[in-house]
Specification:
Length: about 425
């Protein structure tokens, strides 16, 4: 039953307040003003006071306008017709295609019951050695990419979207510059990946509330496809913009701010989205890879700090490469023992040698004399950076492992690596 109210008691920014009863959180409402009809969403309930965020902004809305509650939360159409389409944060076409209205589903529902989940067991190959070899991405994992503005994190997401071995890519863009939106669209279209992708894009010029809807609408669609057996990879960029939108609305509603002005429920808001990652017992899976930019490269900033407690590791993107130290996939042990029997050995030994290389660089900077071993480490470290860490390197896992053996063989004698003899005999490159 739809309810109509004739009096708005307050307008603050793009948030309007009306007195009503029996209204649900996140329920949609339609505001009829002289300039037309505007869609709004319930973002707070305080007794009989209902706070509504107006999608298109409150310009033209007056206190005498009618508010009609629709009796349901935000919905999005779900069907195979979504494939290859681009929508805004409200689920409306951005690609000049037809509006889809069949099979409407609610967004923002609860995470999947843990009893329906299974232990992650499958690797998602990306063609990026620093991920595939050293911090494998696992189906149903939730991982952030910690970075700073200016780093090529959107380029990394686009490359993963083109190369990841999954059935479907859903890109959720929040606060994107228009150039970044065009980059994603044109890059995936050029490489033939747009046909297996769905975009929900909020640009910096769009209403703030649509930024908040992007993760929910992306994950609601992902869940429906996963239930039909699809392996879905959800790429979100940028969760800091999402959190800033939360802050903007909480300030408008005069809520008591927490750390650095963010709302006190920031952790819960982030967790509600990340916990949608799942591997269904008898169906498909949802994997989440989300960019989180860190203002001032400060990992103690509230957004990355809270994110770190929710997710299963993180990738650090620094100096246009994935940093081996600090980056961590906590679920990699579930899959890297099932790939090739030398995977864990190559991973462990190459990182240990690279750590020794970093220590040698510090010794060199302080003026210490370099030993023959130090010189080997310096040569190895440079080769590792150029041939393994460089994001332009694009090779399958098996070739990356072979390359790892090749780099070690070019710089060390077999006994210097500390690797078991049986693996040396099988995998060490023959001269």
């Amino acid at each position: 039953m739809q309810r109509i109210y004739n009096r708005i008691i307050q307008i603050a920014g793009n948030v309007v307040t009306v007195e009503a009863e029996g209204i649900g959180y996140r329920e949609l409402a339609e505001i009829s003003s002289k300039t037309g009809k505007s869609l709004a969403q319930v973002i707070r309930i305080d007794g009989e006071k209902i706070f509504l965020q107006v999608f298109a902004g409150s310009r033209g809305v007056s206190t005498g306008d009618k508010v009609r509650f629709l009796g349901h939360p935000m919905r999005v159409s779900f069907s195979e017709n979504l494939m290859g389409r681009i929508f805004n944060g409200a689920g409306l076409p951005r690609d000049n295609g037809p509006v889809l209205q069949e099979n409407m589903i609610d967004i923002g529902g609860p995470p999947v019951n843990p009893a329906k989940r299974i232990i992650p067991r499958n690797m998602i190959r990306t063609g990026i050695p620093l991920i595939d070899v050293f911090n494998s991405l696992v189906e149903s994992q939730k991982l952030p990419i910690f970075s700073v503005p200016g780093e090529p994190y959107n380029e990394v997401l686009a490359r993963i979207a083109m190369q990841a071995e999954v059935d479907l890519i859903i890109l959720g863009g929040m606060g994107l510059k228009f150039d970044d939106y065009l980059f994603f669209r044109d890059t995936l279209s050029k490489h033939g990946a747009l046909s297996r992708s769905i975009f929900f894009v909020h640009t910096a010029a769009d209403p703030t509330v649509e930024c908040l809807l992007v993760p929910d609408i992306s994950l609601a669609v992902a869940e429906q496809f996963a239930l039909k057996g699809k392996r879905v990879l959800v790429l979100l960029t940028d969760m800091t913009n999402f959190s800033d939108a939360l802050k903007e609305i909480s300030i408008t509603m005069e809520q008591i701010p927490s750390n650095r002005g963010y709302p006190g429920d920031l952790y819960s808001q982030l967790a509600a989205r990340y916990e949608k990652a799942v591997d269904f017992d008898t169906a498909g899976s949802i994997t989440i890879l989300a960019v989180t930019t860190m203002p001032g490269d400060d990992v103690t900033h509230p957004v990355p700090d809270n994110t770190g407690y929710i997710t299963e590791g993180q990738f650090y993107l620094r100096n246009k490469s994935i940093e081996p130290f600090g980056s961590l996939s906590r679920l990699k042990q579930h899959v890297n023992g099932k790939t090739r029997k030398d995977h864990r050995t190559v991973m462990d030994r190459m990182i240990q040698l690279f750590s020794d290389y970093r220590s040698t660089l510090e010794k060199q900077a302080m003026g210490f004399q370099m030993s023959e071993w130090d010189k080997k480490l310096l040569k190895y470290g440079k080769s590792f950076e150029d041939r393994m860490m460089n994001l332009s390197v694009n090779i399958p896992l098996e070739k990356a492992l072979d390359l790892g053996w090749q780099i070690m063989a070019e710089n060390f004698e077999p006994f210097e690596t500390g690797i078991k003899t049986e693996l040396i005999e099988e995998f060490w490159p023959k001269k």
